[in-house]
């Protein structure tokens, strides 16, 4: 899943990038409000982490702009320890959750996973497609009760497919959610990863619809 991190403190932004990428997220980082407005309105994200104290445009203005432009991605705002008024203003502007600075990276990860899970319509922390199970808290897959060994990109792709199980997902949509802003979006590499995933989860589980895309199916 692809996440936008908006944080002007370079060290903290780098820490969040490292932690999120280490837990299977695709991450873009921007450091000022004007760039955040542009990226949020023109790129595709599954969620965002947004600091409210930004140069250029403050975080509340950024969030308001996103919502005014119909951007519905879940947003976690970062607030100061005594930022009660910021919290209230953030929720009024359209925030979905908040984290108080300083925080543990695990908290950001857990909150993002929960928001993305609920945004895709899943109430349970376990997302299932037949015998394939994804634990959204731990970020792990099991097939017929046994752990699946996946590469980082295989994991990212399967996470997106299981969040959207039984729905046809186009190659363009997959590319938008699996590649960061600076990476080339290569449809051929998607084909290779899909082929490898089929060998691991069963060819019948990932259906190809010619000219449309892919669909993760319950084949239990």
UniProtKB/TrEMBL annotation:
DNA-binding region per Swiss-Prot/TrEMBL record: 124-218
CDD domains hit by this protein: REC_OmpR_EcPhoP-like, trans_reg_C
Domain OmpR/PhoB-type: 124-218
Presence of keyword Iron: no
Keywords recorded for this protein, A-Z: DNA-binding, Phosphoprotein
PROSITE patterns: OMPR_PHOB (PS51755), RESPONSE_REGULATORY (PS50110)
Modification sites for 4-aspartylphosphate: 51
Boundaries of every Response regulatory domain copy: 2-116
Signal peptide interval: none
Family matches, as InterPro entries: CheY-like_superfamily, OmpR/PhoB-type_DNA-bd, Sig_transdc_resp-reg_receiver, WalR-like, WH-like_DNA-bd_sf
Top-level lineage group: Bacteria
Family matches, as PANTHER family: REGULATOR OF RPOS, RESPONSE REGULATOR PROTEIN CARR
Descriptive protein name: Response regulator transcription factor
